[in-house]
Amino acid sequence: MRDDPERPARPEAGAPQPVRITPLGLDGLLGVPPGARGIVLFAHGSGSSRFSPRNNFVADRLRDAGLATLLFDLLTEPEAADRGNVFDIPLLAERLAAATGWLAEQPTLRALPCGYFGASTGAAAALVAAATQPRRIRAVVSRGGRPDMANGWLARVECPTLLIVGGRDLEVLALNQAALARLTCEKELRIVPHATHLFEEPGTLEAVVEHARDWFLHHLGGGAR
User: Fold this and answer.
1) Model confidence over 95-141: pLDDT tens digits?
2) Which bin fits 47, alpha (ψ -120 to 50), beta or left (φ > 0)?
3) For residue 2, what are the contacts with CB-CB under 8 A and spacing of at least 6?
């Protein structure tokens, strides 16, 4: 019998498996380690996809820590060809919320507490989506994010939010410092020394992993509400 990509089972070893998020037809990679304590959905930045090497690096380490991960394309291929969609934060937030709803329909996944990990423009989408689902989303982590693109929603975010920025990414750092002042939830800004926007410097992406892992384990690890 052919496997149905729309109805995923928990991969026994936690290795990412292809899934299709219905009804939108968005392609994703779902990895669920045994005894997962929560699940983190990734929102990639403009020009990226579910295959983002940096997001996959982070996702691999989160699974090692006992957290399930879902990386998926926020847009279909035809939609992504329109550059206007790539920066349409309300649209991207709707897609993230739709993927969260899809997870809630999966019998093996619905009980897992959910968090969002957003990179660059994806961080803005994660913040907006979290603001619209205060009872469902337990935590948000932003890597080199653009929270200014979610400006009108920042005060409505209720879940604990961690902003991670490179110490040499000065423009984005200033934007995150301003956003931190507008957030009214539990919040923290962590600066990775010597890192630029893409965290390409040795050891800097590993620092992102440590900050994100600890944040998610603290806020997702208590089980479903």
Assistant:
1) 999 999 999 999 999 999 999 999 999 999 999 999 999 999 999 99
2) left
3) none
Amino acid at 9: A
Q: Tell me, rounded to whole angstroms, the distance of Cα 202 from its chain centroid.
A: 23
Phi-psi region of 154 (alpha: psi -120 to 50; beta: other; left: phi over 0): alpha
Other C-beta atoms closer than 10 Å to the C-beta of 178 total: 13
Q: Hey, what are 30's tokens?
A: 């779902």
Class of domain 17-220: alpha beta
Burial class (CB in 10 A: 0-12, 13-18, 19+), 141: buried
How far apart, in whole angstroms, are the C-alpha atoms of residue 5 and residue 18? 7
Domain ranges of the chain: 17-220
Weakest mean pLDDT among 66-80, 118-132, 180-194, 205-219: 66-80
pLDDT of res. 224: 37
201 phi/psi in degrees, rounded to 5: -70, 145
Q: Is the dihedral of CA 61, 167, 89, 153 positive or negative?
A: positive
Entry field: residues in the chain: 225
What's the whole-model pTM score? 0.91
Which pLDDT does position 93 carry in this prediction?
A: 96
